[in-house]
Design a protein that fits this description.
The protein has about 200 residues and is α+β, with helices and mostly antiparallel strands. It has two helices and eleven strands; from the N terminus they run αββββββαβββββ. Strands 3, 4, 5, 7, 8, 9 and 11 form a seven-stranded antiparallel sheet that branches. It has a four-stranded antiparallel sheet with strand order 6-2-1-10.
């Protein structure tokens, strides 16, 4: 006597799919609620950066467009957060003129506590760097006026810490543009604010 197939297996598969979907949806909801609670508790604020005490020493520009100089400056990093500290795991610093890199340096990792202002003092040396003809012309013109407009760019791998929790690594791009450096009197160079994209 022939027997008919049971409709139960398709129903069971459908129930299993619905169950898995509900579990995933619940997990997403829990993560979203946790994120919102963390955000409201910590109330994160933007980090602020500024360039100070910039100076150029031993400046020399040859007739064949090769430049040598020593750049000194301080980058001030301000963390206004009450519950968030910052780990800088790698830091690369560039001195640029018209989008051309003149000098480069790396710094040791460091930790910035909550509600803290950290001074980053650095010296970058450009040794016989070949520059474009147009950049050489503008450098000579600015040098004759006693001021050079530079850009300091910082690329850093950072992590944020709230309590015992640490975020994944993020890349911070910090740009200090239009830094006017006075050659005869470095202490009169203008401080400039920096933009940060993290």
């Amino acid at each position: 006597m022939p027997t008919s197939a049971s409709p139960n297996p398709p129903l069971r598969r459908r129930s299993l799919v619905c169950y898995v979907f509900l579990v995933i949806l619940t997990l997403i909801f829990i993560v979203a609620v946790g994120f919102l609670i963390t955000w409201f508790v910590t109330k994160p604020k933007k980090l602020h950066y500024s360039l100070e005490n910039a100076s150029v020493q031993h400046f020399n520009l040859t007739d064949d467009n090769h430049m040598s100089a020593t750049f000194k400056f301080t980058i001030q990093s301000r963390n206004p957060n009450h519950r968030i500290s910052v780990y800088y795991n790698s830091v690369e610093i560039f001195v640029k003129f018209k989008d051309q890199t003149l000098a480069f340096d790396t710094m040791e990792p460091f930790h910035q506590p909550r509600m803290n202002v950290t001074q980053i003092d650095d010296t970058l040396v450009a040794q016989n760097v070949a520059i474009s003809k147009s950049s050489s012309y503008e450098l000579r013109a600015q040098h004759s006026l006693g001021k050079i407009e530079l850009e300091v760019y910082v690329k850093a791998k950072v992590r944020f810490k709230v309590g015992v929790w640490k975020s994944s690594h993020r890349t911070a791009h910090i740009k200090c543009s239009h830094a006017m450096v006075s050659l005869p009197q470095p202490n009169k160079s203008q401080n400039s604010s920096c933009t940060a994209d993290i």
